[in-house]
Amino acid sequence: MSLNITVNYDENENKWVFIPEGEIDIYTSSKLKKEILNNFEENKADIIIDGKKLNYIDSTGLGALISILKRLKENEYKIYLSNIKPNIRKIFDITELDKLFIIRGEDSE
Amino acid sequence: MSRDCVSLKIPKKADFISLARLATSGIAYTMSLNVENIEDIKVSIGEACLNSLMLGHEDTISLSFEIFRDKLSMEISGVKEMIPEELEERKERELGLLIIKSLMDEVNFSKEGVKMIKYIEDDN
User: Fold this and answer.
1) In the beta sheet, which residues pair with residue B108?
2) Residue B20 covered by a domain
3) For the domain that residue B33 is a member of, what is the CATH number?
4) ipTM rounded to 2 decimals
5) Residue B124 forms part of a structural domain
6) pLDDT tens profile A6-60
7) Distance from CA of B86 to the nearest CA of A (A)
8) Which of A94, B8, B81, B103 fits a disulfide with B40 by CB distance 3.0 to 4.6 angstroms?
9) How many angstroms separate the CA of residue B100 from the nearest CA in chain A?
10) Strands (DSSP E) found in chain A
11) Which among B15, B36, B47 has CB closest to A58?
């Protein structure tokens, strides 16, 4: 039930890059939402969530991602998911959220 | 058919759901399941516990596991299939139920909670 979030700003791409490490669940999803939206409000830009260190996400985590997506869309910015592990990709597939988010390295981009 | 049983009772608090997931992974691991099956079972238990946490009426969540040679059967108390219209996290709870129904082979709701079964293929 721990989550660390590394935050970078990619000057070349002009995008925020967030690397959540651990688990996004009921215990940590509000932390993720706050961290991402605070940075976004400070400097509005597209967002990349790099899933290379993300091991688990539950429905509250999905809910947090959906509300982040809504906020970005209101401002006409995009949210990209990259390096998503197969077990988490499967959850996006089941819930059809893969149609809502841009998953990098796949046809949907 | 011979079976082993494991029971776990956790407080109805967010802090303990990760413990339930961890214990479930341990059980699946002792059954020598493959990584994908272990993940499916862990995710489903996590969603069942979330549902029970938000919709159940008891102070605790009871989990009981029956381990068979060819399947794992799990009962979780307080899980509800009907989600109240007025619930703020309604959409999230619906996603949770969708995940459980997609990952488990059998899902049956009763007034006590839910019973979920995952069948074990020979290639494990």
Assistant:
1) B115
2) yes
3) 3.30.565.10
4) 0.92
5) no
6) 999 999 999 999 999 999 999 999 999 999 999 999 999 999 999 999 999 999 9
7) 17
8) B103
9) 10
10) 3-10, 15-24, 46-50, 54-57, 79-82, 102-103
11) B47
Q: Which CATH class is domain A3-103?
A: alpha beta
Domain of B86 in residue numbering reads as 4-119
Q: What Rg value do the Cα atoms of chain B yield, rounded?
A: 14
Cβ pair A58:B98 closer than 8 A: no
pTM across the whole model:
0.94
Q: Does A59 touch chain B (CB under 8 A)?
A: yes
- Whether B13 maps to a domain, the answer reads yes
Measured in angstroms, the CA of A107 and the nearest CA of chain B are apart by 24
> Could you tell me if A23 lies within 8 Å of chain B, comparing CB atoms?
yes
Q: Give, to the nearest 10 degrees, the angle between helix B90-103 and helix A59-74.
A: 130
Give the model confidence (pLDDT) of A52-96 as tens digits. Answer: 999 999 999 999 999 999 999 999 999 999 999 999 999 999 999
**Of the candidates B18, B50, B102, which has its C-beta nearest A60's C-beta?**
B50
Pick B50's closest partner by Cβ from A23, A58, A66.
A58
Residue B86: inside a domain, yes or no?
yes
Give yes or no for A62 touching B (CB within 8 A): yes
Pairing of strands A3-10, A15-24: antiparallel
Residue with tokens 């479930």: B24
Specify burial of residue B14 (Cβ count, 10 A radius: 0-12, 13-18, 19+): middle
